[in-house]
Amino acid sequence: MKLKLFLFETLAAALLTISAAAAVPLEDPNTHVVRGNIFDTKDEKKLIFTFERQPFPSGNSLRVMRSYKDTAGNVVATEEIFYENGKVTKLVLDQKQVDEKGGFEIKGDKILFNYTKNGKTETDEEKLEEPLLVADTVAAFIHANWDKLMNGDSLKVRLPVPARLETIGFKFEKDSDGVMDGKPVHMIKMSASSPFVRMIVNPLFFSIDKGEAKTVHRVVGRISPKIKKDGKWADADGISVFTHEFKKK
Question: Is the pLDDT of residue 96 over 70?
Fold first, then answer.
């Protein structure tokens, strides 16, 4: 039971802000700004958080700041990603609601993890296994493998989980076709590879338009911020709806 609770609590960190994975569509990630509203799954009109992705390019480097705010405008969680020549090199998490921080850095063929909880910092390392995704690269992965997904292939990836000091396997596959806001969309499903993890965490569903841009408009599933339940912070799912803008270079 304790192991199940630990997985349930830390897998939210695995998903990071996957529910905001619309952050890297076909357009240039150096200029792509994403904003989103996150609603309660039991009441689609009840706003619970907002999301924003802001890119800060510098030559061949890119720093992306992804942040969540509550309805009062307070920042409750952030995720800072660093790129070099288009490759993720480092990630820094700040789970402000529970006062926990962590992340990872890629050095050669290894992932170096760190996580601080209750004032104690733990570290570990793992051999790098590709494809390795973070929330900010999910949409790009979907686009790069679009034909395979449309042909019914199931694609396996690894996702870093700083709170567990390791990566966890997930898979992407096409789930169905549907309609959102009167427009046809493809539904892409992301679920844990492990049957045990699937018992604890619901799959995420990405609604992607069928147009040329293949923009991710909505994601249903686990979100990074937590909610108060019976006086305690608990993991939660949400309905994330996004808008897209682009900075001028």
Answer: yes
